[in-house]
């Protein structure tokens, strides 16, 4: 058995039109998975799916807004209709609409953060469980953040949601383990994505951050994509309920 092969496996990856989500989708496809590219914009999704197909992979595009439960349900239903039962779910899509102290956080913004970053993941997990449980096989990965492991004076709501994702994973792993459904988190540190643009595009800020990192560099999306493959493949078949930190050593420095 090749421990990292995913031949024929059907995988949904949300937020996969760019950054970490795109890397995860591309690497799943390179290992043989049939991947659904999903984000809000259909054209961006199709561009990524086309690039994967041009590389010899198998991918389709299904746009969906994760804040809308009906669209989430349609995403899963269309995947089944076009590719068949779902074997892998990667919840990468998330939002951070507020930067500032918790004293200035409105109820509406907090509700939006928790709905998009936590509740939508539960919706998706419950929907795909219907395919995984009868076959006693499935892998779910939620992309969290090291923000869920420490406090912040500026992105507190986002960090609360990412800590909630870690607990959601633990709960589902306990509940669904008897059906051989594995549920795990990845907690990235500073990765070269749009979310971290303010860090890596400012030479002084980037240098300061990299000097504090034991590996002396910020991460790349593919540094996360490979971890997702491991968690979804036979190589990760005895890992569940865990949060794998991939931060270049930031949290242990």
Mean pLDDT: 96
What string gives the helices and strands in order? EHEHEHEHEHEHHHE
The CATH top-level class label:
Alpha Beta
- State the assembly state of the protein chains: single chain
CATH architecture: 3-Layer(aba) Sandwich
Q: What is the CATH homology-level superfamily? A: NAD(P)-binding Rossmann-like Domain
Put simply, the count of helices is 8
Structural class: alpha/beta
Number of domains: 1
Q: State the separation between the terminal residues, measured CA to CA.
A: 37 Å
Largest sheet: 7 strands, parallel
CATH fold assignment: Rossmann fold
Q: Work out the radius of gyration.
A: 17 Å
Strands of the biggest beta sheet: in what spatial order?
Answer: 3-2-1-4-5-6-7
* Portion in strands: 5-15%
Uncertain parts: none
Helix content: 40-55%
Number of strands: 7
Q: Note the overall shape.
A: globular
């Amino acid at each position: 058995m090749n421990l990292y092969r995913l031949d024929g496996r059907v995988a949904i990856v949300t937020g996969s039109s760019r950054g970490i989500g795109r890397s995860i989708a591309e690497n799943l496809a390179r290992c043989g998975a049939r991947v659904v590219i999903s984000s809000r914009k259909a054209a961006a999704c199709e561009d990524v799916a086309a690039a994967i197909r041009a590389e010899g992979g198998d991918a389709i595009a299904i746009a969906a807004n994760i804040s809308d439960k009906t669209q989430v349900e349609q995403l899963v239903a269309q995947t089944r209709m076009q590719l068949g039962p779902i074997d892998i779910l990667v919840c990468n899509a998330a939002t951070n609409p507020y930067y500032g102290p918790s004293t200035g956080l409105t109820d509406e913004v907090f509700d939006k953060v928790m709905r998009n970053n936590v509740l939508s993941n539960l919706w998706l997990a419950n929907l795909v469980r219907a395919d995984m449980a009868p076959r006693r096989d499935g892998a779910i990965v939620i992309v969290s953040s090291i923000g869920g492991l420490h406090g912040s004076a500026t992105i507190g709501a986002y960090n609360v949601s990412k800590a909630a994702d870690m607990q959601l994973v633990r709960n589902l792993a306990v509940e669904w383990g008897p059906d051989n459904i594995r549920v795990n988190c990845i907690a990235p540190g500073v990765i070269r994505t749009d979310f971290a643009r303010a860090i890596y595009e400012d030479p002084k800020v980037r240098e300061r951050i990299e000097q504090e990192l034991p590996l002396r560099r910020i991460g790349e999306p593919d540094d996360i994509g490979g971890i997702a493959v491991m968690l979804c493949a036979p190589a990760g078949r005895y890992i569940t309920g865990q949060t794998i930190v991939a931060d270049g050593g930031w949290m242990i420095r």
